[in-house]
Amino acid sequence: MALGKLISAVILALAVAVAGTSINTNAQPPLATGLEGADSPVFQTALDRWLQGDDERSLPVLAQLANDENLAAQILLGAIYDRALIRTPWLAALSRSEERALFRFDDGRFGVPWLRYAAARAEVAELLGPPVPDESGRFNADAALRAAALGEPRSTVYLLGILMSQGTWPEAMRLADVAQTYDLQAMAWAAASHLATADALALRQRGLAEFQARTLQGWIFASLADRIDDREMETILGPHDAMRVYVTRGRPPFPTADPPPAGGAAVLDALLASAPEADLLRRYCGRVCGGEAALCTRQIYGMLAGYPTLPYVVSSPVETLVPQDIYVTSRRAELVLEQYSLHSIYASSDPASAFERLDLVQCLSDTLRSAFLPR
Questions:
Q1: Most buried residue, 60, 153, 255, 257, by CB count within 10 Å?
Q2: Residue ranges of the alpha helices (H) in 55-113?
Q3: Under 8 Å CB-to-CB from 276, ≥6 apart: which residues?
Q4: Where are the beta strands (DSSP E) in the chain?
Q5: What is the chain's pLDDT, residue by residue, as a tens digit (375 residues)?
Q6: Is 69 left (phi over 0), alpha (psi -120 to 50) or beta?
Q7: Is the dihedral of CA 89, 90, 96, 99 positive or negative?
Q8: Are 278 and 301 within 8 A, CB to CB?
Q9: 19 pairs with which residues across the strands?
Q10: 11-16, Cβ contacts within 8 angstroms, sequence gap of 24 or more
Q11: Which of 352, 268, 350, 351 is nearest to 310 (CA)?
Q12: What is the CA angle 219-283-342, rounded to 5?
């Protein structure tokens, strides 16, 4: 899925009206897994170079390994491509045929994406790729729960977004416990706010507790929850509506943007200073901006369109190969953060002019400019 469509789909999902009548939060426990070829020294070297941000010395090696039937290389390349982690200057300079040679098995026609090719040998490849609907054309939570059981809980983010966008909220609620591992509990909590079952009401109370603790998950829950004829929710949220929307979505860092509501910036800064899902933003801004890291963090959060994009930015493409704690501290994660932040600039009709309109602290502007301009 293209980067713009991915972000749009997630943001669209946040506005979907929901309905349903049941809940099942019995997630399967994680299982020990391994991928054939992952212990190859050549693969490990290429993987390390990719994490360092070196596409030129990593991707061609991974492609050669994939063509030599290295399953780990096939799955990593497939996930990189499917997760739209390919917007880097080196890759942008390649022709379509050169890019296809990296990310597809050559079947003599247009090529087969590596995840689809590898699916015959590893179930996790199928689960990391585009989801498959059932006979009725709809999706359920089974694939997401199986991905979590195979050691890929963050891959359920994509499937959860699909469940939300098609309004299958009872299925989305089945992911509530798994979601605790990737900071998306609130999406399941929001579904609970629309249902009247005892389990749904219990799940909703968890969401309210998180909101009252002022976590990012709580803010997103508050934004999704239906408050029609809901006196309890109205009492908690009513006085903070404008600030709630600001904190949840952030503000584009343009001079023409509406100023944050009273207290909004302070609340957002406090959340971003401690929320686990904002750790990459804090680390990145601490490195590039030093003493102005707090302002940098708020501004780059706004460029990401706020919370909905964070799970994609901070997710390892294949946790079986790259554990989340390793990925999130890598240079690769920072490169992806920069590419997501600059998405609207790349998509504009006049990118150079659009970049000049950004109202950013100088240290962040200088860093993003180097990522934006061709090398």
A1: 153
A2: 55-67, 71-82, 89-92, 96-103
A3: 183
A4: 104-105, 112-113
A5: 333 333 333 322 322 222 222 223 343 333 334 789 999 999 999 999 999 999 999 999 999 999 999 999 999 999 998 877 777 888 888 999 999 999 999 988 889 999 999 999 999 998 887 777 888 888 888 888 888 888 887 777 667 777 777 777 778 777 777 765 545 566 666 666 666 677 777 777 776 776 666 666 666 666 666 666 777 777 777 777 888 778 878 887 887 888 888 888 888 888 888 887 789 999 999 999 999 999 999 999 999 877 667 766 778 889 999 998 899 999 999 999 998 898 888 888 898 888 988 999 999 999 999 887 755
A6: left
A7: negative
A8: yes
A9: 168
A10: 11/305, 11/308, 12/165, 13/161, 13/164, 13/165, 13/308, 14/164, 14/220, 14/223, 14/224, 14/308, 16/164, 16/165, 16/167
A11: 268
A12: 75
Token pair for 286: 């601490």
Identify the bridge partners of residue 113 per DSSP, sorted by sequence position: 104
- What is the residue whose two structure tokens read 């300079």? 93
Q: Find all residues with CB under 8 Å of 327, minimum gap 6, and list them.
A: 51, 315, 316, 317, 319, 333
For 40, other C-beta atoms within 10 Å of its C-beta total: 16
- The pairs formed by 159-162 with CB atoms below 8 angstroms and a separation of 24 or more are 159/131, 160/184, 160/187, 161/9, 161/10, 161/13, 162/131
Contact criterion met (CB below 8 Å) for 3 and 84: yes
Residue 104, phi then psi, degrees to nearest 5: -140, 145
Please say whether the beta carbons of 70 and 321 come within 8 A: no
> Which pair of tokens denotes residue 20?
């349903």
Residue 305 is classified by DSSP as T
What is the total residue count of the chain? Answer: 375
